[in-house]
Fold this sequence. Notes:
Helix content: 25-40%
Number of strands: 26
Strand content: 15-25%
Number of helices: 19
Radius of gyration: 23 Å
Shape: globular
Structural class: alpha/beta
Amino acid sequence: MRSDIEIAQSAVMLPIEEVAGKIGLSRKEISLYGDYKAKIDLAKVKEIPDKKGKLILVTAISPTPAGEGKTTTSIGLGDGLAKLGKNVVLALREPSLGPVFGVKGGAAGGGYAQVVPMEDINLHFTGDLHAIGAANNLLAAIVDNHIYQGNQLNIDPRRVTWKRCVDMNDRQLRFITDGLGGRINGTPREDGFDITVASEIMAVFCLAADLADLKERLSRIVVGYTFANEPVTVAQLGVQGALASLLKDAINPNLVQTLENTPCLIHGGPFANIAHGCNSAVATKLAMKLGDYVVTEAGFGADLGAEKFLDIKCRMNGLSPNAVVIVATIRALKHHGGVAKVELNNENLEALKKGLPNLGRHIHNIKDNFGLPCVVAINSFPTDTEAEKQAVFAYCAEMGVECANSDVFAKGGEGGIELAEKVLEVMHENTEIQFTYDADLTVDEKIRAVCKKIYGADDVTFAKSAQTMLKTLAAAGYDRLPVCIAKTQYSFSDNASLLAAPEGFTMNVRELRLSAGAGFVVAVMGEIMTMPGLPKQPAALNIDIDENGVIKGLF
């Protein structure tokens, strides 16, 4: 079987002007990045009449090492809707170079459900992530320079919370000491790097409504605290204009296409645990303006990505999905039932039965807690048996939701038609999200609401440092912000080993981090890595390029 990159490189792509024309965009409204990529000029599309395409959110069960194929399913669903004659636009996240060269490999779909040009999308693309990294690191330099040049704001060097970043997995940079070598080289302090997609500027970028809102949100970022425990903002440093200037082109969404020439906006990509894990709000809203149907996705399982998509992104931007797709694989459900990865290809109905409650809790959250119509998509593998498929279909029927086979990896849009038809059947003309918590609750009350209602926890405890931060937030007026919970993606709990749908557990908030620019408070539970490391055999070892510039081994 051909690899993903071989399939992508054999694709017959349309010139990007033709793809733009499919959704009513003229040449003057896009800026070309070669023949097959473009940026859409937000300033020039303001005059396009507003319409509200129907929004379809693709999420998944709790992730496993077996993989769920959420992006692949999203792309195949979009192509399936297009095959049914629908005017559809995809809105997806940009890949980070860290996972591309690390464990995951490419992040542009797989098999015959991909976005292209796949190599460009995975490697640098249009430079958005580099622009975000430059803005992040300019701010870091300004903070340290302010301290060096007299520190008029009385910033406590021990309480600088703003880290530098790089778009690469590099464990060596997690914890560093800088400013060494004498006074002329700065103030010595403990520091560290995050991967670019974990930068708050990425979260700000993806929640901003436009360039003006982006600048305003940047001004609200808190970079640290004074000796008197007062927050210090970008506005006080006066650098928001420079940061926004670095992002003036990046804020314009990127236009590409699927293997079947369906238009796709790929824009932004914040971490799905430390941030909200969705593509940019401007891209989603623009896609809804240009298409009758929009397919988008949220990172990790529905307890993380979908919860944040709904409680943060939708609430801030007045959005509400008309339908939700929950992606599951039989292999992953067997993993939740206790089967080791090497045994997942074998039929095991007993393990499948034990793992199905994980899917059930996600269904319950979407259908009953959030009040949204949903469809389960079984992302098919050749090793799935008919008995296993029927067991999943029967379980979904008991839960009161539709279920569809999705064979988009092997068949592209044709393999997504069954799913597309089911989504159209359950779709509501208008939906109203039943949010997890009231906006006027305090941060700790909101955390308890998510943990108990969405995760199924019995209780929530707060470490001493988290309790201290609650008081700091209250004193500074940040204690009513939405919450973004950072925990393991592998379990509903904060313990990665508790699979399926655990009960009787307590969540512990280890620390709280303020993301004032993004507009939420991050509740850290367990050990959350914001700078991943490379594995023993990084994906980078398989990537090569020949004398003609053709890349191989990307995925």
